[in-house]
Design brief:
The protein has 16 helices and 16 strands. By secondary structure, the chain is an alpha/beta fold. Bound molecules: pyridoxal-5'-phosphate.
Length: about 450
């Protein structure tokens, strides 16, 4: 470790509390400190280069130091970095909203900005809740969510999240939601059709019994990311849309992870021609540059908030940095790059390449399941391939595998024992192949040893 790194590591350990990190482990480890980026690579203070294999936590799209996005931010710096949207308009937020509406599923027409995926979900929840209050349907105040779903870490978004660990710890602080089983084929005894139908039936059961109390169903369309890249059986989202229409409840699609090309189309909803009542966007919206989020809804929902001041129909929600101009400028450049570089059109060969590599390892003894939708893939490592039994949590097999990949030049981060592959959407085929070589070879060659020593 060079002197500069030593100094930084010392200061990091002294001053910083890292998210989702057992700091006792961190304090004992030799952390990597990233100093710069170059295209699809991250560069640390020792000069090591790593392929950004999880898109800097699922948000990077076109790589790092992309000239067009850099320039858009510089240009905006020369005008203004931030002014409030509370009672004022701002050029870039208008321009971006117009662009978003053009590419979103039809019917989504009103953009409410915020700054994180979690806030975009909070806003969706409050919007759906108040929509029914504004209409005088005050009993409709509950939400249906899927088990193992993830919608962010604020109290409202954890309330509709289905990850048990968080519910165990913060349970008393959360509002109560109804949970239906996620259609998780690998953990379901039956085929794709039965798995989809089982979940839809459970949701319908809840709706049949208490739709008059339900405001909305919230789901991550097609892929439940944080749950370990659970890929839903085809038709589940369309089925959900049908049920929500039939029983008169709203559908909230959380596309924070799936949006902006990740699943092979611009938005996951477009795979099944679904237009939700509310959509949540964040992560990739600025190409992974700056914190920005948007909750977009229909004119019908928007109109229910119109009224005299005294009617109290105003949407009482906002954040200081709502619609930040620098972030909006980056987001506009992000969308322009999608068009200029035909990013969506360039995805099929990359998706096929990932599929070929996954096929190579799916028969290995400790590879329980490989799952993929577009550029989102998960490789689930298990103790027993037949019974699907997992390794105990403390063995941290996934983390150890990712450490081994890091030594070979791929920056990865697992979800328990699911190795997550989520390269930047615009990654070139050569770099993607290098990334896949590292990931697959580590699983082929290093996994047996890691298991033996765990
Ligand atoms: C990451 C994520 C969130 C939370 O976004 P933050 O910007 O981290 O608050 C919400 N929903 C989904 C589906 C996510 O993957």
């Amino acid at each position: 470790m060079n002197a500069k790194t030593q100094k930084l590591v010392h200061a990091d350990k002294k001053y910083i509390w890292h998210p989702f990190t057992q700091m006792l482990d961190w304090l004992e480890a030799d952390p990597v400190i990233i100093e710069s980026g170059d295209g699809f690579y991250l560069i640390d203070t020792e000069g090591n280069r790593y392929i950004d294999g999880v898109s800097s936590l699922w948000c990077n799209v076109h790589g790092h130091r992309v000239p067009k996005i850099d320039q858009a931010i510089r240009n905006q710096l020369d005008k203004i970095s931030h002014s409030t949207l509370l009672g004022l308009g701002q050029t870039k937020s208008i321009e971006l909203a117009e662009k978003l509406i053009k590419i979103l599923p039809q019917g989504l027409e009103k953009v409410f900005y915020s700054d994180a995926g979690a806030t975009s979900v909070e806003i969706a929840i409050k919007m759906a809740y108040q929509y029914y209050r504004n209409r005088g349907e005050k009993s409709k105040k509950k939400f249906i969510a899927l088990t193992e779903s993830y919608h962010g870490d604020t109290i409202g978004s954890v309330s509709v999240g289905g990850i048990q660990t968080f519910h165990r710890i913060f349970g008393e602080l959360l509002f109560q939601a109804e949970f239906a089983p996620s259609p998780h084929q690998y953990r379901f005894d039956g085929d794709d059709d039965q798995c989809r139908q089982f979940s839809l039936d459970k949701i319908e059961e809840i709706l049949r019994n208490q739709s008059e109390n339900i405001a909305a169903v919230i789901a991550e369309p097609l892929v439940q990311g944080a749950a370990g890249i659970i890929v839903h059986p085809a038709g589940f989202l369309a089925g959900l849309r049908e049920l929500t229409r039939k029983y008169g409840v709203l559908l909230i699609a959380d596309e924070v992870a799936t949006g902006f090309g990740r699943t092979g189309k611009m938005f996951a909803c477009q795979h099944e021609d679904v237009s939700p009542d509310i959509i949540c966007l964040a992560k990739g919206i600025t190409g992974g540059y700056l914190p920005l989020a948007a909750t977009i809804t229909t004119t019908e929902i928007f109109d229910s908030f119109l009224g005299e001041i005294s009617e109290m129909k105003t949407f009482f929600h906002g954040h200081t940095y709502t619609g930040n101009a620098l972030a909006c400028a980056a987001a506009i450049a992000n969308l322009e790059l999608f068009e200029e570089n035909k990013v969506i059109e360039s995805l099929p060969p990359k998706i096929r390449l990932i599929d070929e590599y996954l096929k190579r390892i799916e028969n290995l003894p400790n590879v329980g399941n490989v799952r993929q939708k577009g550029l989102m893939a998960g490789i689930e490592i298990v103790k027993d391939k037949i019974t699907r039994e997992s390794f105990s949590y403390e063995k941290t097999i996934g983390a150890k595998l990712c450490s081994a990949m890091r030594l070979k030049g791929a920056m990865m981060r697992p979800l328990s024992d699911v190795i997550v592959l989520m390269p930047p959407v615009a990654i070139d085929l050569t770099t993607l192949k290098n990334l896949l070589d590292i990931v697959v070879e580590t699983i082929e060659n290093d996994l047996p040893e890691i298991i033996k020593n765990a």
